[in-house]
Amino acid sequence: MALRKRLRAPRQPRPARRLPQALIIGVRKCGTRALLEMLYLHPMVQKASGEVHFFDRDENYALGLEWYRSKMPLSFKGQITIEKSPSYFVTPEVPERVRAMNSSVRLLLIVREPVTRAISDYTQLRSRATPSAPAQPLAPGHPLPDAAKPFEHLAISPDGSINMAYRPIAISLYHAYLHRWLEVFPREQILVVNGDLLIEDPVPQLRRIEKFLGLEHKIGRKNFYFNETKGFYCLRNDTTDKCLRETKGRKHPRVDPAVVTKLRKFFIQHNQRFYDLVGEDLGWPE
Ligand code: A3P
């Protein structure tokens, strides 16, 4: 018996579903999917495949942490599980709920130049609305649905002021949401990722993130190749070779340059408030 015990094979590490140790909290249309897929190239990273929306949807949150855990991938001890749901960033209840799960969770916030982000958001809303556009022409006097209107008409009110109530503009006011996170988490627990730089040259950004997550540096140039047709980097490692779907990297509609200039001017003071909060100037055009 004693001999049999000694000869028994060493115990294999068993994978388990673990709550995330890192979250991509937003911002939508800033490259949240690209960031998650790029981090997943790392052998010590596991990702939740869809957006779980645990912390921002009351009906999911009510199901409890065991429900959330059941949505997580299998991981080995030492691996990091990451989940992303971009609406976490803008939902007021989320920071406190995340803290209640794990006060030392690592938070990744990816941002882009706010006017580009707003146009990207508009492009997505418009493309989603197109398939369900009314089959019949609208009756005379019937207002056009928002998604069918030009961006310029939605972002600028008839009196010429910026329409801050328009969601794609409101979400680009990053400081308005970030301050709530900073009331709950220390600044060092949030890494701000520049989404425009991630598009141009992902490796240096990923190196910063690996460091932030306490991971060995593994993601390098070998993991990316530029796809001329798509106009973006695609990803590869021993098991994957893929570009992001066509919903990522859409062509944006042309926006009147005077409107872009007006919006950029409007965002100067808001961007400054964001820089002050994060302690870093992201150099967005004025
Ligand atoms: P656009 O479609 O406006 O270009 P999210 O995943 O948060 O919705 O962000 C979508 C954005 O990710 C895209 O916005 C695109 O610019 C950006 N992105 C960053 N890296 C990318 C990549 N390698 N392939 C495709 N899109 C990428």
From TrEMBL:
<feature type="binding site">
    <location>
        <position position="120"/>
    </location>
    <ligand>
        <name>3'-phosphoadenylyl sulfate</name>
    </ligand>
</feature>
<protein>
    <recommendedName>
        <fullName>Heparan sulfate glucosamine 3-O-sulfotransferase 5</fullName>
        <ecNumber>2.8.2.23</ecNumber>
    </recommendedName>
</protein>
<dbReference type="GO" id="GO:0000139">
    <property type="term" value="C:Golgi membrane"/>
</dbReference>
<feature type="binding site">
    <location>
        <position position="233"/>
    </location>
    <ligand>
        <name>3'-phosphoadenylyl sulfate</name>
    </ligand>
</feature>
<keyword id="KW-0472">Membrane</keyword>
<keyword id="KW-0325">Glycoprotein</keyword>
<feature type="active site" description="For sulfotransferase activity">
    <location>
        <position position="29"/>
    </location>
</feature>
<keyword id="KW-1015">Disulfide bond</keyword>
<feature type="disulfide bond">
    <location>
        <begin position="234"/>
        <end position="243"/>
    </location>
</feature>
<feature type="binding site">
    <location>
        <begin position="29"/>
        <end position="33"/>
    </location>
    <ligand>
        <name>3'-phosphoadenylyl sulfate</name>
    </ligand>
</feature>
<keyword id="KW-0812">Transmembrane</keyword>
<keyword id="KW-0808">Transferase</keyword>
<feature type="domain" description="Sulfotransferase">
    <location>
        <begin position="20"/>
        <end position="270"/>
    </location>
</feature>
<feature type="binding site">
    <location>
        <begin position="248"/>
        <end position="252"/>
    </location>
    <ligand>
        <name>3'-phosphoadenylyl sulfate</name>
    </ligand>
</feature>
<keyword id="KW-0735">Signal-anchor</keyword>
<keyword id="KW-1133">Transmembrane helix</keyword>
<feature type="binding site">
    <location>
        <position position="112"/>
    </location>
    <ligand>
        <name>3'-phosphoadenylyl sulfate</name>
    </ligand>
</feature>
<dbReference type="GO" id="GO:0008467">
    <property type="term" value="F:[heparan sulfate]-glucosamine 3-sulfotransferase activity"/>
</dbReference>
<keyword id="KW-0333">Golgi apparatus</keyword>
